[in-house]
Amino acid sequence: MRRGLIGFIALFGATVQAFGHASDGGHLLILPTGYYMAAAALSVAASFLIFLIAPAKPLHREQEANRSDLSRFSATSALSFVFLIMLISAGYIGSRDPLSNPLPLMIWTVLWVGVTLVQGLAGDLWRFINPWRFPCWLIFHLFGKPRYRLPQWLGSWPALFQFIGFAWFELIDPAPTDPGRLANAVLIYFCVNLIAAVLFGYRDWMRRGEFLSAFYAILRTKTPRALSRTQTIFLICVLASVSFDGFSKTFFWLGHVGINPLDYPGRSAMMIINSVGMAGFALVMIALFYTMIAIGHALTGAKGSFADHMGTVAISLIPIALVYHFSHYLTSLLIEGQYALAALSDPFGLGWNLLGLRNLHVRAGLTSGHGPVWLVWNLQAFAITLGHVGAVYRAHLTVASLYETRLQRFRFELPLTTLMIFYTIFGLWLLATPAAG
């Protein structure tokens, strides 16, 4: 087993001597991507065989920890609530430049990228900085507990629909980084979810209604506690949105929808076609995942419906969602993260220098030039490959609790692993293919 692990790591590592160049906006990355794709695909396939041969100890289900109660005052949530008010205010009265106003930078870069990665890889950060926790605690302390219960038949559909709106605003809306426009969206979103949490209870609404809390709870899933059907669809939609964000800028997509990629017309001209494309992308990914699970279950010859295993196997997608988030947004995090620090020093554009970083010189060279581009590309490629290997491993441990024999597990995992191999190749293709806009 040890030799096998060393072998497929060496196979992947043997491809690192490559050169490339990327520039801002539309760019073309010149790399021997075929070698990367082949090595990554073989690494995922090899990991499948290694994990299959190795003994698998089924994970035991554990009950979900109750971490969303409001029994105690949360100082960090109070600070987060005040900070959010400051950001919304900055959106209204601060600089109109999205790279100088802290609201767009904190929402799209620090929250959606940074906090997501910390939540999935390091710990339950959101539990402490959730801005709804403090106002809900205060309201319940003054006026009593909520009067209504969120119907069970709703599942996580409220969170899913909220995410669809969020993804559309991020990827399709003509000006998601406009400070005033974003301030309106954030204020409405916060108030709607605050009212819902007060009516239906903080814990239940955060778990099934507010999409960030629902998504972060999924990322923290460690044991084969089956996700609900809507949670499974939700997770796939998150993965699909990140993938489509990259795909929608490729020469391939633009050429097929009749757009000259060298004369990109802007987001306004692409709203309808990208809305249809994003929806179609998500539906295709959901269909592929369900189909592979159905084929795998049929190959095992086991009784029962494949749908019974969907939610359990779906947690194997969590590592893939995390690494795609990392790879897709890495350059944004490196560059716009610097702008965020500078903007926080002068949030209202009044000449303040609260952090001493107002005049911070942003180092855009972190993602340009031969050396940085080579490093960034290899980090992205390695992350995608490692994420799929982790997904195969997690699926293997999960399937061990569903099927008794090794042959059944092999048959069930084979279609799903095949899908992961092709998705690995697709992910690396997205990173290397020419893009515009």
Properties at a glance:
single chain; about 425 residues; mainly alpha; about 65% helix
Topology:
Layout: H1 2-13, H2 33-53, H3 75-93, H4 102-121, H5 126-129, H6 133-143, H7 157-171, H8 179-200, H9 202-208, H10 211-219, H11 229-247, H12 251-256, H13 271-300, H14 310-314, H15 318-345, H16 370-399, H17 406-432
How would you describe this protein?
It is globular and about 65 Å long. It has one domain. It is built from 17 helices and no strands. The chain is mainly α and 437 residues long. Helix 2 (33-53) packs parallel to helix 16 (370-399), helix 3 (75-93) runs antiparallel to helix 8 (179-200) and helix 7 (157-171) crosses helix 10 (211-219). Mean pLDDT is 84; it is low at 1-30 and 62-66. The protein is 65% helix and 0% strand. The chain has helices at residues 2-13, 33-53, 75-93, 102-121, 126-129, 133-143, 157-171, 179-200, 202-208, 211-219, 229-247, 251-256, 271-300, 310-314, 318-345, 370-399, 406-432.
Briefly characterize the structure:
This protein has 437 residues and is mainly α.
